[in-house]
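Cont'd.
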Amino acid sequence: DAGVIQSPRHEVTEMGQEVTLRCKPISGHDYLFWYRQTMMRGLELLIYFNNNVPIDDSGMPEDRFSAKMPNASFSTLKIQPSEPRDSAVYFCASRGGGTGPSRGELFFGEGSRLTVL
Amino acid sequence: AQKVTQAQTEISVVEKEDVTLDCVYETRDTTYYLFWYKQPPSGELVFLIRRNSFDEQNEISGRYSWNFQKSTSSFNFTITASQVVDSAVYFCALSEEGYSTLTFGKGTMLLVSP
């Protein structure tokens, strides 16, 4: 069974450019999460979706960041315009199991390493 | 508010030593879930274990064991007879019943030298 698939694995871009990160969750998972990892701040939740609907985007740094989930098998995280401080590893994760004791564990993709020059 | 503290930033051991990674959590909920994840040098995050707050039984899986103590709000992770392949960053995480998200600690980098 395929895991969470993210693309691109590495992205180097110049300040001001638009960046789009992509994620395909595990089939059947109804929750999708975007996390950002930096040395200074560790793993931070940016936004998460339930059944394709954004539930909590309070972690999105600012209006330059946007995320969409047009269907159950695809999500994007867009940064426009990008800045050097956006350099980080962006992880997508998915899980099933609702919110009760039956909730499943979070499965992470391999991450997208973004460098903004 | 939920919080996870991993006070050990980095631990270095020699192969075959036992090592314990500490995790202390804060939550106001009576029902919550605790997790450990491993992040090897390749960068992916690998799920290791999940515990429910109503199950304090310790768990052992091969060389890995976990000690969950509600009285001290701790969920410590022990690796017995460490190996070089155990070198990674280990994250402890917490999820409260009413929330769908995980709050992660800052991680502990474990370096196992031959």
